[in-house]
Amino acid sequence: MVERIKDSQLSASINQKLVESGERERLKELLRSRLIECGWRDKLRSHCKEVIKQKGLENVTVDDLVAEITPTGRALVPDEVKRDMLLRIRTFLAANT
Amino acid sequence: MSSVLDNGSSPSEVDSLDLDEDSSPEFSIVSELIDEAIVSVCFDIHRSIKRGVYSVLEQSDEKIMKQFEVVECDGLDVFGQVPLKKQVECICPSCQRNMAANRFAPHLEKCLGMGRNSSRLASRRLATTGKLIDGDDDDDNYFDDDWTWNSDRKPGKKNKRDRGNSPRRAKAPRKNGEAGTPRPGTPSSVHSGELPATRTGLTMTAFEPLGNEEKKALLSQTCGVISEHTARMCTRSHRCPQHSDEQRQSVRLLLLGYAEVEPPVGRLRPDGSSLEPDDVIDVDSYEDGDGQALRDTLNRLSWEEESNVSTGDDNSPAAFGSVPLVKKKRKKKAKHKRRPR
């Protein structure tokens, strides 16, 4: 429990730092372009299409989509991209603390 | 700022990162970022659905694209349609006729009267008919006019000829007598000697100066019918489809100088070529007149051509320049005539 609270505090502080410095926006944009480059976005979209087909075009809500797609989306992200993001965050923290 | 530039950290460091440890706060931030990306995708799609763009952008991909797929079949074009070999047709603005596009330019040239021939044709057609003629080709019109020109002349001849049926019988013995020369030589030689072949009514100024032999040669090779429009002689062969045998014969009669009186006797043998049914009739009539059928028939066959000449002389002596010569010859013939009887 204590560790978790600690972790969440730590991550919150890190997040604050990232946001304040504007690094978070930069990382986000970088991730986006990376994911588009590796075809993740297209895969996700085609998956969305299947979901929409099953549910019917009129019955789709954002919540449904997010719930259906998030697991596949997470799994589809290449490890390389994940690693790269992690590394960037760490180097940022190392440089700013 | 430096962190961005630091992305090229050593590979060993990257490999050392353990992605499975969810505990690290950095990784939670990464997954947060990933989730945000996922949500943004969902938002995008949902938005396009609600705006009605989605069906166009995404679903149409499958349905409509199949509709517009490139067809790869033999005998079909890329749209899956059978290529039509329909000829493009044009409507002449002048005469409203429908014609194939490749014939349009030549037709228009004639129809609108460009060029030497067609302008004359067109203006004449306009002048004579007073309206545009549909349906017939230009050549046909040309031919028609030629035909009418000749048919104008023909009725007279025919009438003469019909009338001449009775006189012919009376004439036959005289003919026989006049043309009695057993072998007067080739017809051409006789004519060339006596007949100047100078007629007044026709515009054959180029033809007239020629010698009779030349005329003969020319007429033996070509159709020779004189066109009303060009005033020139047809240079095609004897079988030229534009002119009839009658036209050719009448022209020869005119050109060689013993023409105008020929019709009553028979419009045949202008150049002494061959015998035709009319000759037989002549023979018959002659036969009626005299008793010596066989001999006279044979005799006549030999100098049949000459009889025509002599009758021509009889009927229009003023037409020839050398009347005395003709008369001499006639006397000669008359002598010969008496002999067979």
TrEMBL record, chain A:
<keyword id="KW-0509">mRNA transport</keyword>
<keyword id="KW-0156">Chromatin regulator</keyword>
<keyword id="KW-0653">Protein transport</keyword>
<keyword id="KW-0805">Transcription regulation</keyword>
<comment type="function">
    <text>Involved in mRNA export coupled transcription activation by association with both the TREX-2 and the SAGA complexes. The transcription regulatory histone acetylation (HAT) complex SAGA is a multiprotein complex that activates transcription by remodeling chromatin and mediating histone acetylation and deubiquitination. Within the SAGA complex, participates to a subcomplex that specifically deubiquitinates histones. The SAGA complex is recruited to specific gene promoters by activators, where it is required for transcription.</text>
</comment>
<dbReference type="GO" id="GO:0000124">
    <property type="term" value="C:SAGA complex"/>
</dbReference>
<dbReference type="GO" id="GO:0006368">
    <property type="term" value="P:transcription elongation by RNA polymerase II"/>
</dbReference>
<dbReference type="InterPro" id="IPR018783">
    <property type="entry name" value="TF_ENY2"/>
</dbReference>
<comment type="subunit">
    <text>Component of the nuclear pore complex (NPC)-associated TREX-2 complex (transcription and export complex 2). Component of the SAGA transcription coactivator-HAT complex. Within the SAGA complex, participates to a subcomplex of SAGA called the DUB module (deubiquitination module).</text>
</comment>
<dbReference type="GO" id="GO:0005643">
    <property type="term" value="C:nuclear pore"/>
</dbReference>
<dbReference type="GO" id="GO:0006325">
    <property type="term" value="P:chromatin organization"/>
</dbReference>
<protein>
    <recommendedName>
        <fullName>Transcription and mRNA export factor ENY2</fullName>
    </recommendedName>
</protein>
<keyword id="KW-0804">Transcription</keyword>
<keyword id="KW-0811">Translocation</keyword>
<dbReference type="GO" id="GO:0071819">
    <property type="term" value="C:DUBm complex"/>
</dbReference>
<dbReference type="GO" id="GO:0015031">
    <property type="term" value="P:protein transport"/>
</dbReference>
<dbReference type="GO" id="GO:0006406">
    <property type="term" value="P:mRNA export from nucleus"/>
</dbReference>
<keyword id="KW-0539">Nucleus</keyword>
<dbReference type="GO" id="GO:0005654">
    <property type="term" value="C:nucleoplasm"/>
</dbReference>
<keyword id="KW-0010">Activator</keyword>
<dbReference type="Pfam" id="PF10163">
    <property type="entry name" value="EnY2"/>
</dbReference>
<dbReference type="InterPro" id="IPR038212">
    <property type="entry name" value="TF_EnY2_sf"/>
</dbReference>
TrEMBL record, chain B:
<keyword id="KW-0804">Transcription</keyword>
<feature type="region of interest" description="Disordered">
    <location>
        <begin position="304"/>
        <end position="341"/>
    </location>
</feature>
<dbReference type="GO" id="GO:0000124">
    <property type="term" value="C:SAGA complex"/>
</dbReference>
<keyword id="KW-0863">Zinc-finger</keyword>
<protein>
    <recommendedName>
        <fullName>SAGA-associated factor 11 homolog</fullName>
    </recommendedName>
</protein>
<dbReference type="InterPro" id="IPR051078">
    <property type="entry name" value="SGF11"/>
</dbReference>
<feature type="compositionally biased region" description="Acidic residues">
    <location>
        <begin position="276"/>
        <end position="290"/>
    </location>
</feature>
<dbReference type="GO" id="GO:0003713">
    <property type="term" value="F:transcription coactivator activity"/>
</dbReference>
<dbReference type="GO" id="GO:0008270">
    <property type="term" value="F:zinc ion binding"/>
</dbReference>
<keyword id="KW-0805">Transcription regulation</keyword>
<feature type="region of interest" description="Disordered">
    <location>
        <begin position="263"/>
        <end position="292"/>
    </location>
</feature>
<keyword id="KW-0862">Zinc</keyword>
<dbReference type="Pfam" id="PF08209">
    <property type="entry name" value="Sgf11"/>
</dbReference>
<dbReference type="GO" id="GO:0071819">
    <property type="term" value="C:DUBm complex"/>
</dbReference>
<feature type="region of interest" description="Disordered">
    <location>
        <begin position="144"/>
        <end position="197"/>
    </location>
</feature>
<comment type="function">
    <text>Component of the transcription regulatory histone acetylation (HAT) complex SAGA, a multiprotein complex that activates transcription by remodeling chromatin and mediating histone acetylation and deubiquitination. Within the SAGA complex, participates in a subcomplex that specifically deubiquitinates histone H2B. The SAGA complex is recruited to specific gene promoters by activators, where it is required for transcription.</text>
</comment>
<keyword id="KW-0010">Activator</keyword>
<keyword id="KW-0479">Metal-binding</keyword>
<feature type="compositionally biased region" description="Basic residues">
    <location>
        <begin position="155"/>
        <end position="174"/>
    </location>
</feature>
<dbReference type="InterPro" id="IPR013243">
    <property type="entry name" value="SCA7_dom"/>
</dbReference>
<keyword id="KW-0156">Chromatin regulator</keyword>
<feature type="compositionally biased region" description="Basic residues">
    <location>
        <begin position="326"/>
        <end position="341"/>
    </location>
</feature>
